[in-house]
């Protein structure tokens, strides 16, 4: 019978229990001890709550390109991340990212949160990011001062490489961005790896494809934005710190050529090599 079909003891049974005296007390003592032991065993066997893991990264970029669009050069940046496993398959992540060029002419702050789920066939991620531009999108006091987006991605190992597909919708310009990225890691030693990555971006409905002199997006076309090639060398210095130098090459697509060409006088190029390095601490 189910647990709810059990009957409460009758009055006669309770009376007999009173007359049994010490025997009843002994049985009650054994039962109480057993229950306490079972509770302790259940508590000890329950999985411990996952702690929150934090990381802090400090980096430098000779040129700051984001999704193929040039913003500034000689940038120093900081990223504070946090992650917590919600269960065996689900992880919550949050970040705060700040970057500024050498003269603090261009400054940007990003705040984001996401949830990643291991679905077996792929790792699925959904999240939200808020972008704040301290002196406007054009770093001259002109243009939008903020933007925000939602995004989803799917990442999966396909043969010897990792493939990640990303889709983001920007609420400020009511346009979308799609990206397909492929990366491969080669272990060079116990502490050093070589990571090769290639990514291609696509604007859907004019995702910052043409920026006017006032610093606002006026593009409306769906077009390729860029191709990015990146080689990085993560070096685990110890259990806490990882140093990662990198070199990269940004190739502007039709959706970036006009804007990046227009900024050539301050450092942008249609096709450009750039480099940088970062130091990450996990605690």
Attribute tags:
13 strands; Porin; alpha+beta; 283 residues
Strand coverage percent: over 45%
Cα-atom Rg, whole angstroms?
29 Å
Order of helices and strands: HHEEEEEEEEEEEEHE
Give the averaged pLDDT, no decimals: 87
The major beta sheet can be summarized as: 12 strands, antiparallel, barrel
Q: In the CATH scheme, what's the topology name of the largest domain?
A: Porin
Let me know the number of strands: 13
The structural domain count equals 2
Distance between the termini: 52 Å
CATH class of the largest domain: Mainly Beta
Q: Which residues sit in consecutive blocks of at least 5 with pLDDT less than 50?
A: 1-30
Oligomer: single chain
Number of helices: 3
Protein model, in words:
The structure is a single chain. The protein is an alpha+beta fold. Helices cover 15% and strands 53% of the residues. It is built from three helices and 13 strands. Strands 1-2-3-4-5-6-7-8-9-10-12-13 form a twelve-stranded antiparallel β-barrel. The radius of gyration is 29 Å and the shape is globular. The N terminus is likely disordered.
Characterize this entry briefly.
15% of the residues lie in helices and 53% in strands.
Write the layout of secondary structure elements.
Elements: H1 11-20, H2 22-45, E1 53-66, E2 69-85, E3 90-100, E4 107-118, E5 123-133, E6 146-158, E7 161-170, E8 175-187, E9 193-204, E10 223-232, E11 235-236, E12 241-252, H3 254-262, E13 271-282
Antiparallel strand pairs: 1-2, 1-13, 2-3, 3-4, 4-5, 5-6, 6-7, 7-8, 8-9, 9-10, 10-12, 11-12, 12-13
């Amino acid at each position: 019978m189910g647990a709810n079909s059990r009957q409460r003891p009758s009055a006669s049974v309770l009376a007999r229990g009173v007359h049994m005296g010490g025997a009843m007390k002994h049985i009650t003592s054994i039962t109480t001890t057993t229950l306490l032991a079972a509770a302790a065993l259940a508590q000890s066997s329950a999985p411990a709550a996952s702690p929150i893991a934090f990381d802090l990264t400090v980096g430098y970029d000779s040129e700051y390109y984001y999704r193929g669009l040039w913003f500034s050069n000689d940038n120093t940046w900081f990223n504070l991340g946090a992650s917590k496993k919600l269960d065996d398959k689900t992880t919550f992540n949050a970040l705060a990212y700040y970057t500024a060029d050498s003269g603090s002419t261009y400054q940007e702050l990003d705040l984001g949160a996401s949830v990643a789920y291991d679905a077996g066939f792929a790792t699925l991620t959904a999240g939200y990011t808020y972008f704040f531009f301290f002196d406007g999108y054009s770093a001259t006091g002109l243009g939008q001062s903020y933007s925000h987006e939602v995004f989803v991605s799917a990442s999966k190992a396909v043969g010897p490489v990792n493939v990640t597909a990303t889709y983001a919708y920007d609420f400020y310009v009511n346009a979308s961005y799609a990206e397909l990225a492929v990366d491969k890691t080669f272990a060079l030693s116990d502490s050093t790896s070589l990571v090769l990555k290639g990514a291609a971006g696509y604007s859907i409905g004019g995702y910052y494809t043409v920026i006017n002199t006032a610093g606002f997006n006026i593009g409306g076309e769906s077009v390729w934005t860029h191709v990015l090639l990146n080689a990085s060398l993560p070096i685990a210095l110890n259990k806490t710190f990882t140093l990662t130098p990198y070199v990269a090459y940004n190739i502007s697509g039709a959706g970036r050529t006009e804007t990046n060409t227009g900024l050539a006088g301050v450092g942008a190029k249609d096709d450009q090599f750039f480099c940088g390095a970062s130091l990450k601490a996990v605690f």
